[in-house]
Inverse folding.
């Protein structure tokens, strides 16, 4: 290696040092979804990022959904998907399939990828230890889609204290033992709040909040909670970004320090966000 290249690498490590120190021993929740879950190259990059974060002293919790895998499995089983007002209706049979896919296939594949990256992970879901206690989502009847009532972090903390990276599938359970599907963004924010996490990192398929949706260079770097209503009213924040940011807002209101929306299509985007002088996404804070 040439001396100039070695100096450049040393500079990168030195730039990362204060951030490594900042997050050492702190809990960081990663909401894993979008293209980063379907592209093998990106999947590998995310898992290596997570292992590195764990090795430098962070307590990492990975929360995932798995919409594409669910859709694929339903199609293979010849199960038709019904939508109500644009949202998937989850009947009893679909709820069982969702639990099988998320807590089984997807969850264990992620544990396997962490193992391949020489990390230590343990697969969990919201049913384990009554972690995510839910009730039927009020309003429009969507079947077995749940609203989180409470988060029991006992199993998560046990895994973290034992040096494992907990990987959590977003299904929950009610008082009668019925399993429900849960929105992954909502579950990640609720878990982050219950853990009083230092940061929630949400991987998406956009750069973050853009002032002009057609211009990637119009990224809004940070948003204070008080600014959210105005940005929604003006239409800057719209569509699927509204519930995503609302979940983050509620999480911050209940114990989460801050949340950031980043582009999961960028390789090693988590490290670029955490360990550089300038983050790459949209930071939401008090």
């Amino acid at each position: 290696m040439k001396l100039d290249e070695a100096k450049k690498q040393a500079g990168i490590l030195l730039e990362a040092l204060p951030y490594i120190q900042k997050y050492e021993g702190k809990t960081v929740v990663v909401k894993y979804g979008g293209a980063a879950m379907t592209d093998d190259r990106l999947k590998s990059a995310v898992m290596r990022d997570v292992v590195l974060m764990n090795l430098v002293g962070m307590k990492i919790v990975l929360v995932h959904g798995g919409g594409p895998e669910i859709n694929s499995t339903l199609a293979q089983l010849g199960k038709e998907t019904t939508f109500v007002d644009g949202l998937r209706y989850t009947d009893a049979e679909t709820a069982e399939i969702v639990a099988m896919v998320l807590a089984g296939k997807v969850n264990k594949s992620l544990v396997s990828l962490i193992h391949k990256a020489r990390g230590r992970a343990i697969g969990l879901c919201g049913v384990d230890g009554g972690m995510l206690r839910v009730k039927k989502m009020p309003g429009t009847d969507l079947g077995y889609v749940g609203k989180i009532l409470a988060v029991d972090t006992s199993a998560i903390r046990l895994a973290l204290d034992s040096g494992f990276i907990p990987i959590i599938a977003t299904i929950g359970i009610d008082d009668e033992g019925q399993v429900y599907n849960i929105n992954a963004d909502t579950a990640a924010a609720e878990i982050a709040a219950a853990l009083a996490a230092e940061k929630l990192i949400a991987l998406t398929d956009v750069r973050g909040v853009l002032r002009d949706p057609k211009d990637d260079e119009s990224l809004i770097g940070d948003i204070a909670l008080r600014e959210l209503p105005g940005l929604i009213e003006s239409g800057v924040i719209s569509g699927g970004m509204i519930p995503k940011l609302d979940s983050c807002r509620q999480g911050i209101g209940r114990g989460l320090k801050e949340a950031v929306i980043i582009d999961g299509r960028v390789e090693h985007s988590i490290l670029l966000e955490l360990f550089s002088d300038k983050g790459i996404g949209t930071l939401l804070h008090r």
About this structure: The chain is about 40% helix and 20% strand. The radius of gyration is 19 Å. The first strand starts at residue 27 and ends at 32. The chain has one domain: 25-285.
